[in-house]
Each structure stands twice: as C-alpha cells, then as structure tokens.
Amino acid sequence: MNCMTIWGFMGAGKSTIGRALAQRYAWKWIDSDTEIEKQAKLTIPDIFQRYGESYFRQLETQFLEDLWHQVQRNQPASELLVITTGGGMPIQEENRRWLKKLGISIYLHVPFDTIVDRLKRDSQRPLWDGTQLEAMKCKYEARLPYYRQADVIIETQGKSVEEIVQDIAAAIRHWRSS
Ligand SMILES: Nc1ncnc2c1ncn2[C@@H]1O[C@H](COP(=O)(O)OP(=O)(O)O)[C@@H](O)[C@H]1O
Ligand SMILES: O=C(O)C1=C[C@@H](OP(=O)(O)O)[C@@H](O)[C@H](O)C1
Ligand SMILES: [Mg+2]
C-alpha cells in the first residue's frame, strides 16, 4: 500500500485536505488525532488535561508504529492511504523516521497570520492560545525546519481546498511515475 503523510502547523488545513482527498479520489484516509481519540476514548483536550503533552506524544509514536505494521500486512500496492498528522507529530525525530518510512510526506505551508485568523475561535487545540501570539509565533518558527524536511512543500496561502487538493494530486502523480 502506498501512503502519503500530510504535515503542517495547527490550523494548516491538514484534516480538511485529508477529508477532501478521500472524497475526491476515494483514497483511504486516516487522521492521527481522530484515531488516538477513538483508542483512548477521550478527546485531545481531555488527554492533555488528564495526562499531559508527553503522554499524548507517546500515543502519537505508538499510533505510527501500529500503523506501520498494519500497512505491511495490507498489500494491494495500487491502494493509496492518506495519513493526516497532528501538528506536533513530525517534530520528534523518531516520528519523522516512521513518517518517512510510510511514504511520501507533504507539508502544507500557511503563513502565521492566516493560522491566527483561522484559530481565532478554536477551543479544541490545547497548545494553541490566541492570547499569547508571541509564544505561538515562536512555536511556529521553531517547527518550520522540521516541517521543511517533508518531501514536498505546498504553498497554500490564498488557495481553496480544491486547489490544494489539485496540487497534491499532481505531486502524487509525479511521485508514482518516477
Ligand atoms: N484552504 C483553506 N482555506 C480556508 N480555510 C481553510 C482551508 N483549509 C482549512 N481551512 C479551515 O482552517 C481550519 C483548520 O483546519 P483543519 O483541517 O482542522 O487544520 P489542521 O488539521 O491542520 O489543524 C478549519 O476551520 C478549516 O475549515
Ligand atoms: O501542534 C500540535 O502540537 C497539536 C496539533 C493538534 O492537531 P492539528 O494540527 O490537527 O490541530 C493535535 O495533535 C494536538 O492538539 C497537538
Ligand atoms: Mg487536524
């Protein structure tokens, strides 16, 4: 099975794009946060509140390891699985290794100001605090070098979901034909 992993900061549109790719091309799609919530039977904010960030990071690594074994058992090479990550997943080196082993990685780049705008009314992201924009910008900038290690970088500013889906489909065509 071929896998594509989608990386990017909170609010970059990863989950939205994953859903749209799955609808448009009938590709399989899995969102790490949704899977972790299902397995833990808790929401992401509850996991953070009860057990803290480092426990959540362990769940992310476990998710990748389990997925890797699942993908190995599932052989149809023609099938494509889209994996949308949580924003912090590619920051840990071990996670990046799993992500790279799984397949092509795609980073959705969004300028910081757009993220601020998109997450204005968000209450589901425990690490986002719209009243602490300096600290948020530091986190964003600290993560950029890791995100830039993805195989493909898509500039998404000013693009609709459909346009980003088209850009990704073109990158995948290129990857499959090479
Ligand atoms: N291309 C886009 N243009 C405008 N808004 C978008 C776009 N992609 C996503 N959004 C919006 O941004 C917010 C965050 O999207 P989401 O998919 O949850 O991001 P992520 O999974 O990267 O955190 C949502 O409200 C979504 O509707
Ligand atoms: O950036 C992060 O560290 C996080 C991003 C979230 O996912 P989204 O990127 O989908 O918001 C979620 O995994 C968790 O709240 C932590
Ligand atoms: Mg998401």
From TrEMBL:
<dbReference type="InterPro" id="IPR027417">
    <property type="entry name" value="P-loop_NTPase"/>
</dbReference>
<feature type="binding site">
    <location>
        <position position="57"/>
    </location>
    <ligand>
        <name>substrate</name>
    </ligand>
</feature>
<keyword id="KW-0963">Cytoplasm</keyword>
<keyword id="KW-0028">Amino-acid biosynthesis</keyword>
<feature type="binding site">
    <location>
        <position position="143"/>
    </location>
    <ligand>
        <name>substrate</name>
    </ligand>
</feature>
<dbReference type="InterPro" id="IPR031322">
    <property type="entry name" value="Shikimate/glucono_kinase"/>
</dbReference>
<keyword id="KW-0547">Nucleotide-binding</keyword>
<feature type="binding site">
    <location>
        <position position="33"/>
    </location>
    <ligand>
        <name>substrate</name>
    </ligand>
</feature>
<comment type="similarity">
    <text>Belongs to the shikimate kinase family.</text>
</comment>
<keyword id="KW-0460">Magnesium</keyword>
<comment type="subunit">
    <text>Monomer.</text>
</comment>
<dbReference type="GO" id="GO:0016301">
    <property type="term" value="F:kinase activity"/>
</dbReference>
<keyword id="KW-0418">Kinase</keyword>
<keyword id="KW-0808">Transferase</keyword>
<comment type="function">
    <text>Catalyzes the specific phosphorylation of the 3-hydroxyl group of shikimic acid using ATP as a cosubstrate.</text>
</comment>
<feature type="binding site">
    <location>
        <begin position="11"/>
        <end position="16"/>
    </location>
    <ligand>
        <name>ATP</name>
    </ligand>
</feature>
<keyword id="KW-0057">Aromatic amino acid biosynthesis</keyword>
<dbReference type="Pfam" id="PF01202">
    <property type="entry name" value="SKI"/>
</dbReference>
<feature type="binding site">
    <location>
        <position position="15"/>
    </location>
    <ligand>
        <name>Mg(2+)</name>
    </ligand>
</feature>
<keyword id="KW-0067">ATP-binding</keyword>
<protein>
    <recommendedName>
        <fullName>Shikimate kinase</fullName>
        <ecNumber>2.7.1.71</ecNumber>
    </recommendedName>
</protein>
<feature type="binding site">
    <location>
        <position position="125"/>
    </location>
    <ligand>
        <name>ATP</name>
    </ligand>
</feature>
<dbReference type="InterPro" id="IPR000623">
    <property type="entry name" value="Shikimate_kinase/TSH1"/>
</dbReference>
<feature type="binding site">
    <location>
        <position position="87"/>
    </location>
    <ligand>
        <name>substrate</name>
    </ligand>
</feature>
<comment type="pathway">
    <text>Metabolic intermediate biosynthesis; chorismate biosynthesis; chorismate from D-erythrose 4-phosphate and phosphoenolpyruvate: step 5/7.</text>
</comment>
<keyword id="KW-0479">Metal-binding</keyword>
